[in-house]
Design a protein that fits this description.
7-stranded mixed β-sheet, alpha/beta, 27% strand
């Protein structure tokens, strides 16, 4: 790279064809070396920045650029400094801020938190405007901050801010690792689908059975009961029910909003998608067929003479069993665990999320939120896409090409 004087050129004004060509025609005449360029358009207003270096007459370059931009009614600012070797700082982390909406106060708190731990915001882009607003921040250590911050400080500080500001904040390492994810595993109950299947089954056995099962389920999801024992206690309540109730409940299941979009988008990108559930294979298989999933693991209910016996067959898919299933599927597809994503909501998902390269707690109980890499509190599963760096615009372009693009009206948000 040649040494000389660097000139930072910033052009602003209404977006129109030809702005870049006029600017670069002026730069070509001065034989500059291009170090960096970046452009963004927000609601029809363009901001174009170019960092160049020149070995002679920077003032002449400045004047030529100003005249060229004035000819097309664009505003330009130039800054000259003797540092031709300056290059773009490499961002080390990605911070995704999600809200409905993201208020100026909330974003200001996030920005202050980043500054407090010595992080500089290098770039910002919008990744979503539906069903939530999503902003992606590329950040790096501030070279002027001499304080050494312990590993994990950034994530811990932003988790604290997210709770007070009413937004979700996800933090990941920037670089290839973020873009290399290839397998994703979803929990089923209260994650891929709304509600708890075991409670829907227990309702067929009467109100008292349903209440008993709900109480045990909630305690297990909070981590207060061993999952295997809690499952056996809940399944006992189902003894004597006809096996047809499994199909009835499967027919009643409602997918979590955004579930179809999420699976469809990830499969377009080549992800292996599946479910690992503490629920029941008979019900889960219907989801596998409906969504075109690649794999599943769940529990098998014993049936004798067309009725449930109240017992589970074989090894239970419990908390450690979920992690074991994730490892098994990753090995089958030849995908390292670092390239796997796990999404769940309960304490029995802790081991599975911990084993995956990225663990996402979805509207989760505190026990899981505390150990997950990212905690999401919005009721839309496609928010997971934004955490992975996939934008709403990219999703909708692909959906439009297949004729499946639609936006479902969202419930109004209280002020």
């Amino acid at each position: 790279m040649s040494r000389g004087v660097s000139v930072l050129i910033t052009v602003t004004g209404p977006d129109r064809p030809g702005v870049s060509s006029v600017l670069f025609a002026a730069l070509i005449r001065h034989g500059v070396e291009l170090l960096d360029v970046e452009q963004v358009v927000i609601r029809g207003q363009l901001t174009l920045g170019a960092l160049v270096t020149t070995d002679h007459d920077p003032e002449g370059l400045q004047e030529a650029v100003e005249q060229a931009m004035a000819s097309i009614a664009m505003t330009v600012r130039t800054s000259i400094e003797p540092d031709g070797d300056r290059v773009r700082r490499q961002s080390t982390h990605v911070v995704v801020v999600l809200g409905q909406p993201i208020t100026a106060r909330a974003f200001g708190e996030v920005a202050r938190a980043l500054a407090a731990v010595g992080a500089n915001i290098d770039a910002i882009r919008r990744v979503a405007d539906y069903p939530v607003t999503g902003l992606e921040l590329m950040v790096s250590p501030d070279p002027g901050d001499r304080q050494v911050h312990p590993h994990g400080t950034l994530r811990a500080k932003l988790v604290e801010v997210a709770a007070s500001a009413g937004v979700d904040v996800a933090v990941e390492r920037a670089g290839l690792a973020r873009r290399s994810k290839r397998l994703i595993v979803f929990d089923v109950d209260s994650t891929l689908v709304q509600g708890e299947v075991i409670e829907m089954l227990a309702a067929r056995a009467g109100p008292s059975a349903e209440a008993e099962v709900r109480a045990v389920t909630e305690a297990a999801m909070r981590g207060e009961l061993d999952f295997t024992e809690s499952l056996r206690r809940r399944v006992e309540v189902l003894e004597g029910l006809p096996v047809s109730v499994l199909d009835e409940v499967a027919d009643e299941l409602e997918l979590t909003p955004g579930a179809r979009t999420t699976i469809r988008t990830l499969k377009r990108l080549g992800f292996r998608c599946g479910v690992v559930s503490g629920g029941f294979t008979h019900v889960v298989r219907r989801l596998v067929d409906e969504l075109g999933l690649d794999f599943c693991a769940a529990n098998d209910l014993e049936v004798v003479d067309g009725r449930l016996t109240g017992r589970v067959l074989g090894e239970v898919v419990d908390r450690p069993g979920k992690a074991t299933a994730l490892r098994r599927f990753a090995e089958e597809y030849g995908i390292p665990l670092e390239q796997c994503v796990a999404v769940g909501d309960g304490a029995n998902d802790i081991d599975m999320l911990s084993a995956a390269g990225l663990g996402v707690a979805f509207n989760a109980k505190p026990a899981l939120r505390e150990v997950a890499d990212t905690a999401l509190s919005h009721p839309y599963l496609d928010v997971v896409l934004f955490v992975l760096g996939i934008t709403r615009d990219e999703v909708e372009v692909a959906d439009a090409a297949e004729g499946v693009l639609r936006r479902v009206p969202l419930p109004s948000t209280p002020p």
